[in-house]
Amino acid sequence: MLNILIVEDEQAIANLIYLNLSDEGYRCVCAFDGKQAADMIEKESYDLILLDIMLPEIDGYELLEYIKPTETPVIFITAKGSVSDRIKGLKLGADDYLVKPFQIGELSARVEAVLRRYGKSEKIISFAGLIINTESRQVQKDEEIIDLTVKEFDLLVELVRNKNIALYRDKLYEKVWGESFVGETRTLDSHIQRLRKKLGWEERIKTVFRIGYRLEG
Ligand code: CA
Q: Which residues, by Cβ under 5 Å, contact ligand 1, an ion?
């Protein structure tokens, strides 16, 4: 799971960010002032830091100087929307900038974009209540780990990455098994059956007549 540190002294905003990003499969922790944040950054490494500018103790600009050597991506979050602040933040090395109040959708899009830029985003895919971690190869549903075999896992990732697309049996097989399809569909079909069962996706994974399968989402 990717670790995100949320540095924000307004509890309600910190909470909102925390709940939304946790929901998307990130592991989040909050710091409510600059000093607490500095301590946490010293002890622990993060994949991304969301950083408010106006903070008690140590402000966001100063913290950014502190974060820089760790090469952790930073998104500034602030009520100060003026162009000069924005430029200052980006000049100091922030990766992006969010101005309060912001839409939650905008927050998660920016978080994802920055993580992608750092080659980190592909590790976590969230879909239909599932959290799929392609690094640890774990699948979670309602906080519980779902036990999948290697091929079931690969098949799931392939389906999710191509959701709503009718996938041809032969292409799907070749992608997941890495060998050419010689017309023997039983292996693929039985894996699909088991995925449907384990995930409760009898309705979600559709059989497409004469083609193959389509994951609806
Ligand atoms: Ca603040």
A: 9, 52, 54
